[in-house]
Design goal:
alpha+beta, Rossmann fold, Uridine Diphospho-n-acetylenolpyruvylglucosamine Reductase, domain 3, Phenylalanyl-tRNA Synthetase, Chain B, domain 3, 3 domains, 6-stranded mixed β-sheet, 22 strands, elongated
Length: about 450
């Protein structure tokens, strides 16, 4: 076991002999054996333990056990306690997800603060096989079928070469004491069901299934590396940048095959997953699907006539308003603009640029109000006789969904005088009787 342990670390280039490693030790069989192997191999390490406060006295006893283990090994010990259930509820996560977030965030903080090269966890081959089946049942893509990797960010997994049984046999031979987590005995979680029900059947059918599945996962990993190289090139070809946004041309997407796979690869990193990607695939095959929107946790994708525009979500776009006074000439929020009051009639032709608004000052009641537009807003676009919904105006002008969401209006007494950057209201235009002109210039 010790020889295989050192060989695996060297072959995978997990860390160097002179590095100082932080070990994540729960007190269970796997992590305690890992700590013993680190000590026997002569590595420099410290031990970190998380108490998730979910099993009462049992959790506290595990913390004490690991503390004593670190003392016996004469290494530094770090421990923390988490209100896991409370965190899971507040963040709408499962208990397993919450525990993972909490411990890895804490591990990384410790690593940076104390200068550890990396964090080692005790995941082994059986864990990786269980993860393979979990991801298979969740319709994971190729990356999910690689199982657990030996290196991931700041995390290293030096026991991935060993089976659970090999670790247990080593612990018996070396008389290594450990704690048993009672939650591992139940079938409340999918991983435990796979461990206790599926894997024994595989063992019965083929006692060598672990190494065969491990070999298959390695093939998938290698094929994935080749495919990722190709798809990275496709990503560069198909994605176009526009400021903080990205877009994909619809005619280029229609030319790729299989479209579903491309969408999964191109948009997965934006948080778009299978259900919405299937919806998008259907929409892309339809001629009249512009104006549709799909969202993820952090991004939104707007279907326009000739492209798919991906933008960061404006999560806190509650109605904000800004007061605009004639006494102040220069404004910086929510975007820069200036005010100028011009006496007399504007000589010559009025500025026709969309970034400049010329309004009849005497028809305005100050302070004006600048706010984001909202559904139901109406105004009378310059040159028109009747009033029009802003949403209809945007449609007529072929304004993209992303641009619509960024639009603001300027109001006087609750009436829109300017759809900022687009058009002023007919009722507030400069006319023959205008005595003073309020000129507003963006930028």
């Amino acid at each position: 076991m010790l020889s295989a342990f050192q060989s695996f670390i060297n072959s995978q280039k997990l860390f160097k002999k002179e590095d100082r490693i932080l070990l994540a030790v729960s007190g269970g069989l796997d992590s305690v054996v890992m700590a013993h192997l680190f000590q026997k191999a002569g590595y420099k390490f410290a031990i970190a333990h998380c108490n998730f406060c979910m099993r009462g006295k049992e959790s506290d006893a595990e913390e004490l056990f690991v503390r004593n283990l670190a003392k016996k090994m004469n290494v530094d010990f770090f421990s923390t306690r988490f209100e896991t259930i409370t965190y899971a509820g507040k963040n709408k996560k499962s208990i397993q997800e919450a525990a993972r977030d909490l411990r890895y965030t804490w591990f990384e903080d410790l690593r940076i603060k104390h200068g550890f090269a990396c964090v080692a966890t005790a995941h082994h081959l059986d864990d990786s096989i269980e993860t393979f089946f979990i991801n298979l049942l969740r319709s994971s893509g190729m990356d999910g079928l690689k199982g657990i990797t030996a290196k991931q960010g700041f995390v290293r997994r030096p026991l991935l070469f060993a089976t659970r049984e090999a670790i247990r046999s080593y612990a018996v031979k070396e008389k290594i004491r450990h704690r048993e987590d009672s939650s591992n005995a139940g079938d409340d979680y999918l991983r435990n069901k796979i461990r206790h029900k599926l894997l024994p059947v595989l063992e019965e059918l083929n006692s060598g299934y672990r190494q065969q599945i491990a070999q298959s996962m390695q093939h998938i990993k290698e094929a994935g590396n080749v495919l990722n190289g190709f798809m990275d090139g496709e990503k560069k070809r198909l994605f176009h940048a526009e400021g903080n946004n990205f877009y994909l041309l619809r005619n280029e997407l229609r030319a790729v095959s299989p479209l579903g796979f491309y969408l999964h690869y191109l948009l997965g990193s934006f948080g778009f997953h299978t259900p919405v990607l299937k919806q998008l695939e259907e929409l892309l095959t339809k001629k009249h699907s512009s104006g549709k929107k799909i969202i993820s946790a952090d991004y939104e994708l707007n279907l326009e006539r000739d492209r798919c525009l991906i933008s960061p979500r404006k999560k806190n776009r509650e109605m904000r308003s800004f007061s605009v006074s004639i006494r102040k000439k220069v404004y910086s929020a929510p975007f820069p603009f200036t005010l100028n009051l011009l006496s007399g009639r504007m000589p010559g032709i009025l500025p026709g640029h969309a970034s400049i608004a010329c309004l009849d000052h005497d028809k305005l009641l100050f302070p004006l109000v600048l706010r984001p537009w909202k559904k139901g807003d109406r105004f009378q676009p310059l040159g028109m006789k009747g009033r029009k919904l802003l949403s209809d105006y945007f449609t007529d002008q072929k304004v993209s969904v992303a641009k619509k969401e960024e639009a603001w209006v300027l109001e006087s007494e609750g009436e829109i005088v300017w759809l900022v950057g687009y058009r002023i209201d007919e009722r507030y235009k400069v006319g023959q009787k205008t005595r003073q002109i309020l000129q507003i210039t963006l930028g």
